[in-house]
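Expect chain and fold; thus:
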Amino acid sequence: MANCKYEYVRNYEVVDKCLPNCWIVVRLDGKNFHRFSEDHKFSKPNDDRALSLMRHSARDVMDEFKDVVIAYGQSDEFSFILKKTTTQFSRRASKLMSNMVSLFSSSYVFHWKEYFDAPLQYPPAFDGRVVLYPSDKNMRDYLSWRQADCHINNMYNTCFWSLVQDGGLSPKEAEERLRGTFSSDKNELLFSEFKINYNDLPEIYRKGSVLIWEARDEVTVKDSTVGGDDPSSKKREIVRQRRRVVCLHVDIIRDAFWEEHPDILAGT
């Protein structure tokens, strides 16, 4: 209501507009997903159903937020990078975060039955945060940090669950066995005791999921027949280029990925 005497309360609202010329990163994390995964009997160390559902929800976010140039996900988290020039929601951090978190969460619940036979026992929850990075290097280093974290966590979990499921140790014993070990120790443990070459594991587990936009030609056939003309001779193809979200499981730490996809840093 315009000119209402109570309208002054709007002055207490914090304007949280993100700084200009910065990459906007919105990261979503599953809340207490350790318990959630146990209650819903996720496969360990990696559940392909859960990872696929996370990717599906992330695609839904990117389809709605076209200014997301790249997204990276692993385990129960996903990071969305909006281009520096985005003006969505007037760059308000709270609006961007709340809309992305709510869409991701609702998509996760909505599509659950497509990936799991058992019903949800209770609603999952995701938290979110917004971080600004002023330079391309800062943004790339952020993604490198998340991918390095994916590798570290997956190596530990692969060792831990191999010791529990195949080595006969209790969770506490497996945790004690791995305490203070380095990557080389874990690689040796996996190969010598379980004949697992860590580098042979699927890349989705070791490198996570990278979602980017890719332009593809889409061909449609139009019927341009007139009157009684032979329809077979009056078909014509129309080629349009459309952007689609594609998923990759690749190294985003080295330069090769960024050289192959220069449009990401260009923000197009």
